[in-house]
Design goal:
Blueprint: H1 2-16, E1 21-23, E2 43-46, E3 61-68, H2 90-93, E4 95-101, E5 116-119, E6 144-152, E7 155-160, H3 186-219, H4 263-266
Parallel strand pairs: 1-7
Antiparallel strand pairs: 2-5, 3-4, 3-6, 6-7
């Protein structure tokens, strides 16, 4: 009976492949108050600390598996590097592997500040198939689930549990954004109108000033220069006296007038 059970166990391992160890850890979205924990193309996980030490050797590789929720049951752990699903085939295979690293990236050290892993943050590799892996942006809001997978030279070695569903933010279509003023409050409309009018007046004054300065330059007028009087020079002011009547000569006394000569005297 014991021999039969041993044979059945060996047969099960042969059929199912290598038996993986389950690491008691569930990846999760970070609880830190970070901006952009969830965006339309990325999400942020807590970095696992002191999780892999007893399961991973220094030569093993630690991968992050990203899959659509409905594809987690059909995902098969790769047994060789050639079976690792790339990021570029996410739309067809519905899963991919990224963030390859080693145990040195997850050290179990005291007083070590907790860090995070941002999935989908690399936009430069999404069309480059020559790279070993790509942490490219996610084109669909999901939902997704992730897990960590450990690979050695013989294939998959250990894995964590799948995370809960991760739903990204949905971007709104530009046509769906309502820009009708009726949706705004009356105060906002009044403030917007006043500011628009004030800006319009400032623009008009500025254009008038520029036009006036250009007109002055075009005419080429030079400001009049007032010549200051030289030192020691003095110009006597002349007055016109045409309004004063001319004075008549005083009458001469009678004794001074010549007397007429008589004819007898001339003889």
């Amino acid at each position: 009976m014991e021999l039969l059970l041993l044979l059945l166990g060996l047969l099960a391992r042969t059929c199912a492949g290598r038996l993986l160890e389950t690491i008691p850890y569930t990846p999760q979205i970070t609880a830190k108050s970070l901006e952009g924990k969830l965006t339309a193309t990325t999400f942020t996980l807590d970095q696992p600390i002191c999780i892999f030490d007893q399961y991973v050797n220094s030569t093993d590789d630690i991968w992050l598996v990203v899959a659509f929720t409905n594809a987690t049951t059909t995902f098969k752990n790769p047994t060789s590097p050639g079976q690792i699903p790339p990021y570029q085939k996410l739309s067809t295979t519905l899963h991919y592997m990224t963030l390859k690293t080693s145990i040195a990236f997850y050290p179990c050290a005291e007083n070590r500040a907790a860090s995070v892993l941002r999935v989908g943050s690399d936009t430069s590799c999404k069309d480059d198939r020559s790279l070993e892996y790509c942490n490219g942006p996610l084109s669909s809001p999901g939902p997704y689930r992730v897990k960590f997978l450990v690979l050695d030279s013989n294939g998959s070695k250990a894995e964590t549990r799948w995370s809960q569903q991760i739903m990204l933010k949905r971007g709104r279509q530009p046509r769906s954004i309502d820009t009708w003023p009726g949706r705004r409050s009356g105060t906002m409309v009044v403030i917007t109108s006043i500011l628009s009018s004030f800006i319009g007046i400032l623009v008009i004054l500025f254009l008038c000033t520029v036009a006036y300065e250009c007109y002055k330059l075009w005419r080429g007028e030079e400001p009049a220069v007032v010549e200051e009087p030289r030192a020691g020079s003095f110009q006597e002011r002349q007055y016109d006296t045409h309004h004063i009547p001319p004075s008549h000569a005083p009458p001469q006394p009678l004794s001074d007038l010549p007397r007429p000569r008589s004819p007898a005297a001339s003889l």
